[in-house]
Amino acid sequence: MATVDELKHLLKDTLHKRGVLDRVRAQIRAEIYSALDDAGHQEPPEPSVENALINELIREYLAFNHYNYTLSTFMSEAGHTKPPLERSFLKEELNVTETPGTATPLLYGLVASYTTRDGKA
After folding, report:
1. Is the dihedral of CA 52, 96, 71, 9 positive or negative?
2. Can you give the pTM of this predicted structure?
């Protein structure tokens, strides 16, 4: 018969393999940040244009990959309360071209453009 420690280890391994453990940890972190924000945290200053564009690229990337708890934490920490910027606006501002019919985040296009330009692809 298995000991309590063996059962704990088996349960922890199973939850880790299923991704549940990481998801719960991320959700707890997001809730902690949210609670801290609710406890009188001052609003962060308005980000610069460059910072806002970078944050929007990160937001789009996290949403695309379904990193929902990470996205929640990021949005809270970055002070994002406004709706997302339009994708067409981001493409124009960053001069990003994408392959028609693709739905990948613009960050992928920037990386592909950089690696192609430098002959790394």
Report:
1. negative
2. 0.63
